[in-house]
Amino acid sequence: MEKVNDASLSKGIRISSAVFLIMILVVLAPTWVLIPIPYIQRNVPSNVYAVPILDSTLYFPLFGITVVKLLQQKPIANLLAGIMLIKTVTVCLSWGFAEWRSTVVDYPMAIISSLLTVVSLILFIIYIFKLEDKVES
After folding, report:
1. Long-range contacts of 66-69 (CB under 8 A, 24+ apart)
2. Torsions phi, psi of 84, nearest 5?
3. How far is CA 76 from CA 8, 72, 108, in A?
4. Could you tell me which residues come within 8 angstroms of residue 3 by beta carbon, excluding any fewer than 6 positions away?
5. Residue 74, SS3?
6. Sign of dihedral through CA atoms 95, 31, 66, 55?
7. 47-69 per-position pLDDT tens digit
8. Could you report how far apart the first and last alpha carbons of the chain are, in Å?
9. Which tens digits make up the pLDDT trace of 90-117?
């Protein structure tokens, strides 16, 4: 915990990470809720339930907690921000591959997933270079 308390992020990276994570919640949470609805309405089993359920019950709440802690400037948020940014990279990258490799490409979703992947990767790289140890600096 001492190392967590010694880590610091600039205000700019804190705010941009918080805004980006909020954007992820605003874009993905409704999408993940809407995806299985047609299958449920037709009473047809689908293989798309696992990811939305996992994201909605585990990752989205963690994104929300991270945003709150970033805005409160809590030291734990410095660590959580990096974890959530790399998680966003991996989720959006796999989602993007799935969209582009589908037999019927949903271009808006493929573009959104690609853009979110690029933005999250850029933010993560900036995060890595901007994360500082207060003791060493």
Report:
1. 66/17, 66/18, 66/21, 67/18, 67/21, 67/22, 67/25
2. -70, -35
3. 10, 10, 35
4. 133
5. coil
6. negative
7. 667 777 788 888 899 999 999 99
8. 19
9. 988 988 898 899 888 889 889 998 999 9
